[in-house]
């Protein structure tokens, strides 16, 4: 039975509503990225080998999160469109199934990956110090994978209902906990003080992240279970599987999941190309990856809000509002990334020195920062417009764009520049810009075709 709701996001000034929804999300994502960067800053105080180890594990780890991406992307379309239509009962069941189904998938993934983790990491390095750091950081992260998956889901569900403030507060709390625990767990004495720590090294960094993730999940789950004026879940619904919903959770986001898999596989190959240039270049790449992820967070924040509005607008058959939300999202993203790019071009040495004091790593990283970060202008444009695909459930363009950009353009370019022409590592960074341009062109083509306008889930 449907229960009509007052869909406040589609009423009044759309742009103001989008910013109201997106800014808390963006701030939460940015702070979450800050603690990822703080992790890397502390790890950089240990050694370049420690940075390289964490970088290698992180690359492999994102392969495992493909299933989280599939179910999460599907849930955005299902929750927003059901809520946009006013079907509260179905919205509640979708949220419950997302949590239950994700937990089961994460348990299976964690078990399988833990068994094959060491041989996977050994593919990238024979350096025992790098491998040891990767395993110390990796095993505990895999053990708590179900909690990580669920922490994403509770926040996504709240945002899809139009509540971006609660997830922001949760992410702020978990980020602060992580940043406080990092130096306590990692070092024998907290840097800059005489206060004793636990001296766990990179394992301590992983443990701090795990604890903060548990806190984030617990807070979000409590909010959903307690309920609010929008919706609440119940424990009975969490112990029942609904195949009709579960099937959609697996299929709607499948193109996005395959896209993420292809992207992560390409990242593994890219890392293999990077490793040709030695540990210092791998360390620089690890720092660059964290910087790239940090700069992406404002983009994801704005686009997450846009996807919510697009889904609710399509559910309410208001296509013009979906178009306005996507275009405004793209514009805001481009403006933000232009500003961040200007900073990266002006002070790349200071940015690198924040993470590590190794002169050679900094030298390699300066051109990387100047090339890698400005490429996000193109990414912001494509992700902003791409919010129409996430909101509608028509995710095939993401897959096509990724295959063309990563495999058709970037991998081919790296093969030629590193293996055939034996050029310097600077062409690794240039390949990222070429890839982002290719992805943008593909997204623009599919956005203008307009098939997403008629897609419903």
From TrEMBL:
GO terms for biological process: monoatomic ion transport. It is a multi-pass membrane protein. It is found in: Cell membrane. It comes from the Bacteria. GO terms for cellular component: plasma membrane. One of its GO terms (molecular function) is xenobiotic transmembrane transporter activity. Its main location: membrane. The chain crosses the membrane at residues 18-35, 99-117, 137-158, 170-187, 202-225, 269-288, 294-316, 328-347, 367-389, 396-420, 426-447. Keywords: Antiport, Cell membrane, Ion transport, Membrane, Transmembrane, Transmembrane helix, Transport. Multidrug efflux pump. Belongs to the multi antimicrobial extrusion (MATE) (TC 2.A.66.1) family. NCBIfam families: matE. This is Probable multidrug resistance protein NorM.
């Amino acid at each position: 039975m449907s229960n009509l709701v007052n869909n406040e996001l589609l009423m009044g000034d759309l742009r103001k509503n989008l910013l109201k929804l997106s800014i808390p999300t963006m701030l939460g994502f940015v702070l979450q990225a800050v603690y990822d960067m703080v992790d890397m800053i502390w790890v950089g105080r240990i050694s370049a080998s420690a940075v390289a180890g964490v970088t290698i594990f992180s690359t492999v780890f994102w392969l495992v999160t493909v299933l989280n991406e599939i179910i999460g992307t599907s849930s955005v379309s299902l929750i927003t469109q059901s809520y946009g239509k006013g079907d509260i009962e179905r919205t509640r069941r979708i949220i419950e199934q997302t949590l239950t189904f994700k937990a089961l998938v994460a348990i299976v993934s964690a078990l399988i990956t833990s068994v094959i983790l060491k041989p996977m990491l050994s593919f990238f390095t024979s350096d025992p110090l790098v491998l040891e750091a990767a395993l110390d950081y990796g095993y505990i992260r895999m053990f708590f994978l179900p909690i990580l998956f669920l922490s994403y889901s509770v926040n996504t569900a709240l945002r899809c209902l139009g509540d971006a403030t609660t997830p922001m507060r949760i992410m702020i709390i978990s980020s602060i906990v992580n940043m406080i625990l990092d130096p306590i767990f990692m070092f024998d004495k907290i840097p800059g003080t005489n206060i004793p720590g636990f001296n766990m090294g990179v394992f301590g960094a992983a443990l701090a992240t795990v604890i903060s993730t548990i806190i984030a999940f617990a807070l979000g789950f409590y909010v959903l279970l307690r309920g609010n004026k929008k919706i609440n879940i119940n424990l009975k619904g969490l112990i029942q599987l609904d195949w009709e919903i579960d099937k959609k959770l697996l299929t709607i986001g499948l193109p996005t999941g395959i896209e993420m898999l292809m992207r992560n596989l390409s990242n593994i190959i890219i890392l293999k190309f990077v490793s040709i240039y030695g540990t210092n270049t791998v360390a620089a790449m690890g720092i660059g990856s964290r910087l790239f992820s940090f700069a992406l967070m404002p983009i994801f924040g704005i686009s997450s809000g846009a996807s919510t509005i697009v889904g609710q607008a399509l559910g309410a058959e208001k296509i013009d509002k979906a178009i306005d939300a996507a275009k405004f999202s793209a514009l805001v993203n481009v403006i933000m990334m232009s500003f961040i790019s200007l900073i990266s071009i002006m002070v790349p040495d200071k940015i690198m020195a924040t993470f590590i004091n190794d002169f050679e790593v900094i030298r390699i990283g300066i051109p990387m920062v100047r090339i890698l970060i400005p490429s996000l202008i193109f990414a912001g444009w494509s992700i902003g417009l791409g919010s129409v695909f996430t909101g509608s459930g028509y995710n095939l363009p993401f897959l096509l764009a990724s295959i063309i950009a990563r495999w058709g353009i970037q991998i081919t370019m790296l093969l030629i520049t590193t293996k055939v022409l034996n050029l310097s590592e600077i062409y690794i960074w240039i390949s990222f810009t070429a890839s982002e341009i290719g992805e943008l062109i593909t997204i623009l083509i599919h956005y203008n075709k307009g098939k997403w306008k008629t897609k419903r889930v």
